[in-house]
Amino acid sequence: MKDKEKTIGAIADYQKTAFIASVDTDGFPHMRAMLKPRKREGIKKFWFTTNTSSIKISHYKENPKASIYFCDNRFMRGVLLMGNMEVLTDEKSKQMIWQQGDEMYYPLGVTDPDYAVLKFTAEKGRYYHSFNVEEFEC
């Protein structure tokens, strides 16, 4: 891939939805749709908002293995990133990605105990496009 970071970053930025996966205590994957990441650094690190009360929080605390997937239906291409997810509840992390309107989900504001940040760090990935798959390291 000529410029994977630019191409994959554009796919991630353009989508309104990201799909993230966790692994439950029985070893089964749990996939869910999420709002797109609030912040990213290249294609290595991504930050999402979530509810502390969500079951995925316990999954990631027990097993940080995770994946995120972005799908661009317009051109039938997608990118799978595999790595680890951290659950962050410190005020600095929460402030970093807080946006106006988040009160709808977290009525107590940035200090809401049900507000957490998920930080995904990619190790490797697979990019599907034009009936081809390219694997890469992050």
Produce a short descriptive summary.
The protein is of the alpha+beta class.
Describe this structure in words.
The protein is an alpha+beta fold and 138 residues long. It is built from three helices and eight strands, in the order H-E-E-E-E-H-E-E-H-E-E. It has helices at 4-14, 55-62, 91-97, and strands spanning 17-23, 29-35, 39-41, 45-51, 65-72, 77-88, 115-129, 132-137. Strands 1, 2, 3, 4, 5, 6, 7 and 8 form an eight-stranded antiparallel beta sheet that branches. The chain is globular. The model has no long low-confidence stretch (mean pLDDT 95).
Please supply descriptive tags for the structure shown above:
19% helix; alpha+beta
Biggest β-sheet strands, sense, barrel: 8 strands, antiparallel
Structural class: alpha+beta
String of helices and strands? HEEEEHEEHEE
**Could you estimate the helical fraction of the residues in percent?**
10-25%
Uncertain segments are none
Strand content: over 45%
Rg for CA atoms: 15 Å
Shape: globular
Q: Total strand count, please?
A: 8
Overall pLDDT confidence: 95
Number of helices: 3
C-alpha termini separation: 13 Å
Outline the fold blueprint.
Layout (H helix, E strand, L loop, with lengths): L3 H11 L2 E7 L5 E7 L3 E3 L3 E7 L3 H8 L2 E8 L4 E12 L2 H7 L17 E15 L2 E6 L1
Antiparallel strand pairs: 1-2, 1-5, 3-4, 4-7, 5-6, 6-7, 7-8
